[in-house]
Design goal:
163 residues, alpha+beta, five-stranded antiparallel sheet, 4 helices
Length: 163
């Protein structure tokens, strides 16, 4: 089992390896991640109105995030393929930013966590938002992608401090 401060994806000799999770208990594991796409108020208004040339920005980004979470093991070399029981992507306009706040919740009953699936969902949803409106504003910023909560497994409950 991993000790605090030890990199679990490195063998004793230093080469990268997939972690053996066969001795871990099967438990319900949940991870929540978030990120933001900052843009001008004018671009945000275009997105909210549904007038982007490529179509429904928020709907497309939500689907892209869900699809990405299901393929995380194909994108991140040492991730285990997981039978996700839930992946939800929520995208909310934030006029104070201005921009869009993206949040993903991933859930599995298994032997390893779903942090990477939640983070991948947020990352790809943010990239999709950028792609769909870059013709209007190339200076958008993807910011603050982070794990905000993790439950289940031996390491227990983690909740990030508010930013």
């Amino acid at each position: 089992m991993a000790r605090a401060g030890k990199l679990t994806h490195l063998a004793k000799s230093g080469e990268a390896r997939m972690v053996d999770v066969s001795d871990k208990a099967v438990t319900e594991r949940i991870a929540v991640a978030e990120g933001r796409v900052a843009m001008t108020a004018k671009t945000l208004a275009l997105v909210i109105a549904g007038n982007a040339k490529k179509g429904d920005v928020i709907g497309a980004a939500r689907i892209a995030g869900i699809m990405a979470a299901k393929r995380t093991h194909e994108l991140i070399p040492l991730c285990h393929p997981l039978p996700l029981s839930k992946i939800a992507v929520e995208i909310e306009p934030d006029r104070k930013l201005p921009g869009l706040h993206v949040r993903a919740t991933a859930k599995v009953t298994g032997q390893t966590g779903v942090e990477m699936e939640a983070l991948t969902a947020v990352s790809v949803a943010c990239l999709t938002i950028y792609d769909m409106v870059k013709a209007v504003e190339r200076g958008m910023r993807i910011e603050g992608i982070r794990l905000t909560e993790k439950r289940g497994g031996k390491s227990g409950h983690y909740r990030a401090k508010s930013s």
